[in-house]
Amino acid sequence: MTTLSTSLKPLVLAWLLLVVLTVLSLGLGQSFHSAPWLPLLVAAIVWFKGRLVARQFVESELATPFIRRLLAVFIAFAPAGLVLTGFFGRQFANWATL
Amino acid sequence: MMAEAVLQAPPPETTSPASGRVPGNKGIWVGITCEFVEFAVLFIVYFVARAHFPEAFQQGAERLSRLSGTVITLLMVTSSFMIACSVTTMRAGRRRQSIWWLIAGLVVALGYPVVKVLEIQWNLANGINGESGIFFTVYYYLTFNHLVHAVWGILGILWVLARHLAGGYTTEDHCGLEALASYWHATDIIWLVIFPFFYVLA
After folding, report:
1. Is B13 inside a domain boundary?
2. B110-131 confidence digits (pLDDT tens)
3. Distance from CA of A11 to the nearest CA of B (A)
4. What are phi and psi of A2, to 5 degrees?
């Protein structure tokens, strides 16, 4: 059995991390806008920030399996797309052409 | 006396990791699932457009106001944090603090539509509208769609705040507050995806 948290400390830490990662990703985008690895790094940051909100704010680890999976799949979906279009954009465009 | 106090104190809410709990109520998770499916489809459209027109997407991001995107992101994560604090303090039996956290979350959340209006005015002043190219078409429909969901969330916050002020929530039963929080966190997660799409990946 797991007890729901009544402490604000994990929430404050998660919020600070979200703010730092937001500013960091913006700085990375401006400094390395033509770097080939940028989509991979941005995808990793998006995934991590999404997981942070899900774990600390929604408390997804204590949720039902459906809610846990729903959040995990949705949070992984966009980063996967970013990597796909970042590294296999041309092949994906060919595949997605009507 | 001590034993009586212990007996009267609400037991800490527990949950089994195997079965788990529903944060809020089932109804809100039906809505959140629909919201995720809707945005997943819109994200697919974004990826298809980006794969077909990579140059337009690289050049388009350079023309947008990064400041607006960053401020909206900070407003979303901060209001999400404050509403999470409202749930946690209510759970701990601190109703007054919970109400103040919710009010703070509402005030910060209201900054989002305000910044959006300023961003649109800035866009129009710089010749950016829905017909400025594929990048801006995708940008407008995705960000407007998110704004609509955020406005629903703000209306939800107002309703939950009214109920909270009227004593509608207790330490034992505040699932309405938690349902609103779950919806707002889901809307926050969606924005965390949209932000790099248009403001980071140039």
Report:
1. no
2. 999 999 999 999 999 999 988 8
3. 7
4. -120, 135
Distance from CA of B94 to the nearest CA of A (A): 10
pTM: 0.91
State how many domains chain A has: 1
Q: Which helix (H) or strand (E) holds B14?
A: strand B14-15
CB contact under 8 A, B51 and A50: no
CB contact under 8 A, A70 and B32: yes
Range of the domain at B190: 24-200
Q: Which of A28, A48, A47, A46 is nearest to A38 (CA)?
A: A28
The Cβ-side half-sphere exposure at B42, using a 13 Å CA radius, reads 21
Q: Does residue A22 belong to any structural domain of this protein?
A: no
- Residue B155 domain-assigned (yes or no): yes
Q: What is the largest CA-CA distance in chain A?
A: 53
Q: Are B181 and B91 in contact (CB under 8 A)?
A: no
| Residue B190 distance to chain A (closest CA, Å) | 8
Does ipTM exceed 0.95?
A: no
Task: Establish if A5 belongs to a structural domain.
Answer: no
Tokens linked to B200: 């980071």
Please write the tens of the pLDDT for every residue from A6-23. Answer: 889 999 999 999 999 999
Does a structural domain hold residue A71? yes
| Residues of chain B contacting A15 with CB distance shorter than 8 Å | 77-78, 81
| Residue pair A18/A49 in contact by the 8 Å Cβ criterion | yes
User: How many Cβ atoms are within 10 Å of B70's Cβ, its own excluded?
Assistant: 18
